[in-house]
Amino acid sequence: MFTSFVRRVGLAVGIAAAALATGTPSKAQTIAEIEQKGRVTIGVLTGIPPYDTVDSSGAPDGFLVDLARLAAKDLGVEVEIVPVNNASRAAALESGRVDFLIAHMTATPERAKIFLMTNPYGAYEMRFVAAKDMPLSSLDDLKGKRVSVPKGSTQDVAVSGYGVEGLEVVRFDDDALAMQALISGQVDATAAVATVANDVIAKRSLDNLEVKSDVPIFTLYWSMAVRKNATELHQWLNNFIYYQEVTGALNRLHEKWVGVPIPGGKLPTF
């Protein structure tokens, strides 16, 4: 099972790398170049409340956007927020459309072959979400079920690698569409961040749904990502994340938008 999982990760990333090979990276990668440009362009994942929302003018807002604003402030430049989803975030970075990503990317070894991944700025628990009356106490309960996932995500790789007989993985462009597929009855379950799922269930009064706790998918961390040649920016972001954590700013932002501290206690470094 583990070997299958690793092979699928490698295949997914290999396809992504081939698709990105024709991109033309932006030149604004050193701190001096970003300062000279006077603006940093940051790709931010959208469609995953409570981590993101929109302001009164319809522009992206939320935890990730506030973190992007804080990074730009510490760089001493203006910020341009570029909304991305699971399917588009890697291409946006590799093509030079954005200078770096704050887009809920987990620092897998395969992704680290393509990008420089920072120390984590947040953590999450990935769980199955399904109807309350659907038994889900073991993987065998997924036999013959349809499960939605965001295309190319870590949960896509994980659920696809289970090898459960008759399990059909149904892929969508982002988390919101994968969740909507469950709500509309297109699938039997979805794989989602527990905090996000609980927020959707509460806000939309989906009393028939629940986050399943007996079969955890994984608990992982989110990192920022820069292009391979952006070593100075990568080091600066690691310093930025460390400083925001030790001063309490990261937890304050997380509590402001998500309602709870970042799960898992002290964030790891690597």
Automatic annotation (TrEMBL):
Family annotation (PANTHER family): ARGININE-BINDING EXTRACELLULAR PROTEIN ARTP, MEMBRANE-BOUND LYTIC MUREIN TRANSGLYCOSYLASE F
Origin organism lineage: Bacteria, Pseudomonadati, Pseudomonadota, Alphaproteobacteria, Hyphomicrobiales
Domain Solute-binding protein family 3/N-terminal: 39-261
Keyword Signal listed: yes
Leader sequence segment: 1-28
UniProt keyword terms in alphabetical order: Signal
Pfam families to which the protein is assigned, alphabetical: SBP_bac_3
Stated name of the protein: Periplasmic component of amino acid ABC-type transporter/signal transduction system
Keyword Signal tagged: yes
InterPro entries: Solute-binding_3/MltF_N
